[in-house]
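User: I'm putting together a small comparison set for a docking exercise, and I want a reference complex before I start. The sequence is below, and the ligand is adenine. Could you produce the 3D structure with the ligand included, as structure tokens?
Assistant: Of course. I'll restate your input first, then give the structure tokens for the complex.
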Amino acid sequence: MAPEGQWILMATGRSPTNIAVIKYWGKRDEALILPVNDSISVTLDPDHLSATTTVAVSPSFPSDRMWLNGKEISLSGGRFQSCLREIRKRACDFEDEKKEIRIKKEDWENLHVHIASYNNFPTAAGLASSAAGFACLVFTLGKLMNVKEDYGQLSSIARQGSGSACRSIYGGFVKWCMGKKDDGSDSMAVQLADEAHWNDLVIIIAVVSSKQKETSSTSGMQNSVETSPLLQYRAQTVVPSRVMKMEEAIKNRDFASFAKLTCADSNQFHATSNSVEYFYWQVAYTFDAGPNAVLISPNRKTATLLLKKLLYCFPPQDKDLSSYLVGDKSILSDAGLHSIEDVEALPAPPEMKIPDQKFTGDVSYFICSRLGAGPKVVSDESQALIDSVTGLPKGV
Ligand code: ADE
């Protein structure tokens, strides 16, 4: 047995973020985070947009602590407390013979954790960082505490951290079933298809602002529930049939239907009711609560054409092309764009009404991504975010 109180046990996980194509907007229970309608999302490639979280446990830790992107944050909020409580409740006996560590099921309640999390993309800017963050926290705590629950149950716990986090427990295409029960036990995510099912899709995110959102999703949602007559109508009448049609579109890889439903749902979510059908569904767009635009293209060829138009209209402010497009950079060479001079030489898109109108600097940068897999354990110990001797975040 390791000397009493000296050992530190750690687990590290990485979870992707997700973008809803049928939106979650409005809660029927604030504390349990139960939605008023089902929602559907695509999980993005964790190489481009993910949270990485290390959770350490030791008898020498006097309290639970957390660091997000290197800064200590409070764990006293109800959402963190719910996730910690629900995972601790389900912890099982653990034994590491080599390290001579034995933890009985009932001991987990008295052991404190240190959590260090890092997002590889802007936090709280409408890119669903809390979805990746809470999915990662629940997944990694579950690994550390030897929780045997299936992914559906884990998604239901992640939901109590941040609603859309339940969808980040799976890769590919994911549905969050709103559930009917008052205790929320049937409000969980299911995978509709994995990331290999429709791997041609290219997802380009125009990051307009990587600053914190001015209105949190929670208060925006509350405001809509209280003031928007459209919300109940949307939840009860529009979304159920849209969800069914979206499931069909995904199953059949029917991009025209997928794009039409995605854009229509984004429009309705923003209550702009744009019903003008001038759009030919070559590309789908969706906007979350933040200002960033998510564009989904059916294949690489369309994505390169789209990128050329985007870079024509939104050229970078400085000369560094490689930091202006992050993620899958190979799309730049596919588009024949090797330098800023190539971007400057792009022709105006033929459909532009005022061809010399450019919006230099309006987009901070673009992320090119694709569908991705669900959470994974990071077993390379050198990638842990907590020092195995001090129990504190590395570099702090
Ligand atoms: N909110 C935003 N990012 C987060 C993370 N990585 N972990 C927990 N909460 C978060």
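Confidence is low (pLDDT under 50) at residues 272-280. Residues 51, 68, 117, 119, 123, 129-130, 133-134, 137 surround adenine (CB under 6 Å).
User: Thanks, that's exactly what I needed.
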